């Protein structure tokens, strides 16, 4: 088995603010498939509702929700036509100013909602500005936003916290998704992961179904498939190299597996052109 992580760095590790719909328009896999990032992300949902799965735990989201994702946290979310929001890419150098664990805040207070809008507007204005020092100003605005987020966490009512994160099933599935992030390119099976976690594959799958309504195999395959799509669309690596870096025994086996899940061969999928991932 391979010990090294695929050499495919996250293309979005600089400070950026992107409309969620921009990626959703290019295919549901850009939002719904399981993935992670090398640096933190902050999702703001301004309108609409749906479901998001973070570290194997699925919950609903609605308007005026803030969802923070630490680095290498596996997630995917529904983004229907009624959902409008933004995703903030937080540079790794500023990750220490944000929480260590995923957070989901529901902003019910109108004053807090307006304050957030002010922070995001100021940040976006500096990111779009051509004035001297605008990027530095944007980073300062990000620092102020991190303080706002910390204060909102401290003011959070008990009923806004999802107690399911503390269940044994949720802890097990979170540990499973963490292992997937470390080893998804090593051709490990669900049984391999179950052994690493000290449980049976049946128990692991039961817990995954309980927390995310998806099997352990579905979560694993979804993560691998997203990475395959990303590498095919956003890099010039040969298909054989993509297959090798994702732990497939051969390019032919990778092609069959990819086509079975997407309806396209890797080459056909790649011809659709490169896109930038959130």
Short summary:
By secondary structure, the protein is α+β, with helices and mostly antiparallel strands.
How would you characterize the overall build of this protein?
The chain is an alpha+beta fold. 46% of the residues lie in helices and 14% in strands. The strands form 2 sheets. It has a 5-stranded antiparallel beta sheet with strand order 1-7-2-5-8. The protein has a 3-stranded antiparallel beta sheet with strand order 4-3-6. Strand 3 and strand 4 (57-61) form a beta hairpin. Helix 5 (168-183) crosses helix 7 (201-212). The protein is globular, with a radius of gyration of 19 Å. The protein starts with 15 loop residues before the first strand and ends in an 8-residue tail after the last helix.
User: Kindly, what is the distance between the CA atoms of the first and last residues, rounded to a whole number of angstroms?
Assistant: 30 Å
The biggest beta sheet reads: 5 strands, antiparallel
- In percent, how helical is the residue content? 40-55%
| Structure classification | alpha+beta
Average pLDDT figure: 90
How is the topology of this model organized?
Layout: E1 16-19, H1 20-24, H2 29-32, E2 41-47, E3 50-54, E4 57-61, E5 65-69, E6 75-77, E7 84-89, E8 103-106, H3 110-128, H4 134-155, H5 168-183, H6 190-197, H7 201-212, H8 216-234, H9 239-245, H10 251-262, H11 266-270
Antiparallel strand pairs: 1-7, 2-5, 2-7, 3-4, 3-6, 5-8
